[in-house]
Design goal:
The complex is a heterodimer of chains A (228) and B (368).
Chain A (H helix, E strand, L loop, with lengths): L1 H30 L16 H9 L4 H23 L3 H5 L4 H32 L8 E2 L1 H24 L2 H25 L11 H10 L6 H4 L5 E2 L1
Antiparallel strand pairs in A: 1-2
Helix pairs in contact in A: 1-3, 1-5, 3-5, 3-6, 5-6
Chain B lengths: L1 H18 L10 H33 L7 E6 L2 E6 L3 H15 L7 H5 E7 L11 E7 L5 H18 L3 H7 L10 H11 L3 H7 L3 H7 L8 H5 L2 H10 L8 H8 L4 H11 L8 H15 L3 H6 L6 H9 L3 H14 L10 H18 L8
Parallel strand pairs in B: 2-3, 3-4
Antiparallel strand pairs in B: 1-2
Chain lengths: 228, 368
């Protein structure tokens, strides 16, 4: 069961995944462009601050790429099911949860492709430059974080896509309503209640989501390839 | 109101031109033109003032602005004005921040002259104060951390005014506890600056840390900071710069003349290894805390003292002890070893499992 599902998913996503694989390989190389000097060349010593500050510009693209890959994998996994009304799944002699588990497993394996490309790209990027004294590169740790971010984004979108469209709409609408209503409460209602006066519900929830142990901490954590 | 002011300006200029003693001729002398300007300028200035007052009045009218009773609080030497319903918050924040300063500051000239206005509300009141005022006025939706930071800023900058000028030039014009990332930034600078002083500092030579921060320098600081090779590398890292510096640059970089490297650096690029003001400010803070009661007064005792002497006098400690304290603080900012299994990544695994379980939960798919 697993191999056919993996093959089906690969067949569906292979052309869409290729650009992401190239992007994952190339992003570390882009990020270190112009940093350090080529090994063996006697070039001027660059200030470490300039190295790291230049690299900082590329930091947001790493989690964004990971999220995009996860979303693409998840949506492509359930695309045919939604189009055909889950006829295929319902016709199989397999319980729903196993079907969903096999699908998710297939997607997680496919996530290894861009993650591996990223790992290779990070190592190539580090090998291509000579870092100033005091700076080190962390390609392995960054690749692990990249893979984890893909899986979190993939799992989230899978959980939404595996359900009905109605459920997904309820979840999304609930989020939007919470943001709007919560902001309204924080700005116009809570200031008149002593104990809640300085409570910002939306900010509190946002902070809980993006910092440990929230689910999105992996996206906002340390994405540094080059550091002390 | 603004339109009225503009009309008054135009009318004023027209009247001035009509009644000026010298008629407008096709060709006027420069002196006559200047005289015209002198006569018209006061009218224009008055009209401009009217326009500004009208603009301010319009802005005040548009703001909800509430009328409220204002209380005067005292926290240490600080005088604080806050609306009555925010008295407790004001006292809490200022007391919490002042607790960090109280061990070494009893009072300071600037704190005695300054009034602090505190408001943490969506409807700020108009609180007018004579004299030097520092305001902490934030919307009620801002978190407590932002308010505390605002209070720290106003107290730090007030005390910074009273720093002896050499110390202020060296450490910056504020006196505050080092922030959460300051140690990490200082370690970063220490670890990545190619200088024998910084390397020695990391190797446990506390006095090298002192020198790296530009304290107690002799006539030849370059010798204390950099090896000859490092000096050449420093020069070569810069473009030749001005025409005046080019011969020195070429001689240093291409011919390897160290004296010319030193000359170039002394004239154009004399930077010590540790430039981070937060790192220096942290040393100042550590010295004051170590000095305890009266440290602030001892720091200010000699307005012309060099920073090294001022820090030693304030803290009552020697160079090595102070530098060791600072070095210990910096090393706390060293990044932890990055393990493949960062504990936070385990949270990610947990969430992947939770979301996968949600994806697998029992629910009905219906055929259309």
């Amino acid at each position: 069961m697993y191999q056919p599902m993996l093959f089906l998913h690969w067949k569906q996503i292979r052309f869409a995944l290729l650009p992401f694989i190239f992007a994952a390989y190339g992003l570390p190389l882009l990020a270190v462009q112009g940093l350090g000097s080529s090994p063996g060349m006697e070039g001027p010593a660059l200030e470490a601050y300039r190295v790291v500050s230049t690299y900082q510009v590329w930091l947001p693209f790493f989690p964004l790429l990971a999220a995009a890959i996860g979303v693409t994998l998840a949506l492509s996994a359930w695309n045919w099911d939604h189009q055909l009304g889950h006829v295929y799944a319902l016709s199989l002699p397999i319980s729903r949860w196993r079907y969903a588990a096999v699908k998710m497993g297939a997607g997680a394996v496919l996530a290894l492709l861009p993650a591996s490309a990223f790992w290779i790209g990070a190592h190539v990027a580090v090998a291509s430059i000579s870092l100033p004294v005091g700076l080190h590169a962390y390609p392995d740790q960054l690749a692990i974080r990249f893979f984890a971010a893909i899986l979190v984004s993939y799992a989230l979108l899978s959980a939404m896509a595996a359900g009905t469209v109605k459920t997904t709409l309820w979840v999304l609408a609930g989020g939007v309503v919470f943001v709007i209503f919560g902001s309204f409460l924080s700005q116009f209602v809570f200031p008149y209640f002593g104990i809640l006066r300085h409570t910002d519900v939306v900010q509190w929830v946002f902070h809980a989501l993006v910092s440990a142990p929230g689910p999105f901490q992996v996206f906002t954590g340390n994405w540094t390839l080059i550091d002390v | 109101m603004c339109e009225r002011a503009r009309r008054r300006t135009v009318a004023g200029i027209a009247v001035a031109l009509a009644f000026l003693p010298a008629p407008i001729r096709a060709q006027e002398t420069e002196a006559e033109l200047v005289r015209h300007l002198h006569d018209v300028a006061p009218l224009a200035a008055e009209a401009d003032r009217d326009a500004q007052e009208a603009r301010a009045a319009r802005e005040r009218a548009s703001r909800p602005g509430r009328v409220t009773a204002v209380d005067t609080l005292a926290v240490g030497p600080l005088r604080i004005l806050a609306p009555t319903d925010e008295r407790r918050a004001a006292e809490g924040f200022f007391r919490e921040v002042w607790e960090g300063y109280a061990p070494f500051v009893a009072s300071s000239p600037s704190t005695g002259r300054t009034t602090y206005v505190f408001q943490w509300s969506n409807e700020p009141a108009e609180i007018s104060v004579e004299g030097t005022v520092r305001r902490v006025e934030l919307g009620a939706w801002r978190p407590a951390s932002a308010v505390r930071s605002g209070v720290e800023n106003v107290i730090a900058t007030t005390l910074g005014i009273d720093l002896p000028p050499p110390v202020a030039r060296w450490a910056g014009s504020s006196v505050r506890a080092p922030g959460a990332d300051a140690a990490r930034a200082a370690f970063f600078e220490l670890a990545t600056t190619p200088s024998k002083a910084t390397h020695a500092c990391l190797e446990a030579d506390a006095v090298a840390c002192w020198v790296a921060m530009g304290l107690d320098l002799d006539d030849r600081p370059l010798d204390d900071w950099y090896t000859p090779e490092e000096r050449r590398a420093l020069v070569s890292a810069w473009a030749p710069g001005s025409r005046e510096g080019q011969p020195l640059w070429i001689s240093c970089v291409e011919s390897g003349s160290i004296p010319d490297c030193d000359e170039y650096l002394s004239r154009f690029r004399l930077y010590g290894p540790m430039q981070d003001r937060n790192a220096r400010s942290a040393l100042l803070w550590l010295a004051l805390r170590a000095g305890g009661a009266g440290a602030w007064d001892r720091l200010r005792a000699d307005p012309e003292a060099n920073p090294g002497d001022a820090l030693r006098r304030a803290s009552g400690l020697g160079t090595e002890e102070l530098a060791s304290m600072w070095r210990t603080w910096v090393l706390q900012g060293a990044p932890r070893t990055r393990a493949a299994l960062d504990p936070h990544l385990l949270f990610s695994l947990m969430w992947i499992a939770v979301l996968a379980a949600l994806a697998m939960r029992s629910t009905r798919w219906r055929l259309r």
